[in-house]
## 1
Amino acid sequence: MKAKPSSKYYSHPTSEIHESARIGEGSKIWNYSQIRENVVIGKNCILGKNVYIDFGVTIGDNVKIQNNCSIYHGTTVESGVFIGPHVVFTNDKYPRAINTDGSLKGDSDWKVGKIIIKSGASIGAGSIVLPDVTIGKNSMVGAGSVVTKNVEECTLVYGNPAKKQILNQECL
């Protein structure tokens, strides 16, 4: 199901927006992006080409999500966040197709790990954010990082696993 076109926001003809999604005024959703059920996207957001937003995700105002990003359910992105190209937010700590007994893994066989990206944070290209992580206000994640633990407010982290490099005291 596709949301009805709106003069309040722009969606490319190839984008797929579920009718239950709510998209804020001035937002732009570019080609081949998919917005699932019950997604909330704030005002003046830009979602680049081939962005996937899973069901129930909330995105604040003035967020920029570059091409080829995947944001899975259980993720909250606050206002003023920048997400570079090819960033992935995962929500399953123990991903498997089958259980150890060989049965297919179903919804009841796993627990969603939540991810929160606080306002003003910036996540560099190609980074991966694992479940049960909060990225602090105005913090930065360097390109190609794998974020396995919480990131403090106003902190630069990078690497695999991402490690604290700088705490900007002036930011606090």
## 2
Amino acid sequence: MCRILAEFRGRSNGDRIDRMSYVYTTSLFIVLAFVVGFAQCFKDPIQCWAPAEFTDSMVSYTKNYCWVQNTFYVPMFDQIPGNISESQDAQISYYQWVPLILLFMAILFQLPNVIWRILKGRSGTDLDNAVQFAQESQLGSREDQEKSIKSLAYFIDKWLIDNNKKTGIAKQIASKYLVVLYLFVKILYVLNAIGQLVLLSAFLSTYFNFYGFEFLENFSSNKPWRESSRFPRVILCDFQLRQLHNVQVFTVQCVLPFNLFNEKIFIGIWFWLFFIAILAIFNLCKWFKPIMLTFNKTQFCKQYLQLNNAFHSSYDKKRCAQFAESYMSEDGVFVLRVIAINSTDLVVTDLVKKLWKLYTNKQSTTKNDENFEFNMFKLVGNSDDDIKKPQNNEHL
């Protein structure tokens, strides 16, 4: 079990709120599914009050039949349906599947993380290894840390250069791929939490208002707890017995003791989903602004460069905007943000310093090459003039 949960967790390259969904919520639902499934398989999930003339084998048959077939719920003081077709309208057919329902909910919470882990590899960089490398760089000596940060900077620099070599739409996609994918996954977390909350409310509520609010209202006003029609403890079961040429119809009253437990489980799940939905919405809003606005991208790089005292002139401050927008782009700054979440500011400060140095060195090299070409052009031009002058004198 621990190995399965560890596999669900995956490598740490998301934030804590993401892990609340795909790690802790998934683990919670899996544990609950196994607890309920174990109780149903190894305990007696149903007890029926059979007629006095039933033998022990007939009582056992009645219990097994009513468990695997659908039962129906009628409030204690309401009239029992007169025939089987009428009782089918009040059938309850889900309680056998509660463990599978919980497992399905766990899969839905894991789905956004699976999509993220599959599609992020197409960005051209290994974000998992970059984050892991940044985390491990904190463990060694200062000299080892500098070597690790330098290697990580070269790794990111090569990826950024490959993206910047692209043109047109391909460059636009490459520079924003991780950012757009990450926001899409954040939206999936929100939709998943809200969608499951709405479905669970419709599934559990006696009326159509939210089940959790109904529970709080009853609890705060000291109203007696109304038995939910979705989790009734006392139900009825119709079954037929063939005796020679006659078919007898029996209606027995049964009790589902585990429904008391199931009801409390789903009340707790409702409040947990409500909490996760609020966190997911807050997390989406928190990430949307910094990774989509150009100003925040420049500010992020600027704050770390100022810590390094990297600005020696006003020209360096102007180059910071070019560094953030043209060189780092949206995905480059996003990778730095993810590393910052999963390591320390010291690691990111050193990493930005190395990337800035690589960028400025390339800028200086490019500028020197341009000056060299310009001087060579002037030299060639002057040589041509010197050659032409003697020819003109000879002509004279």
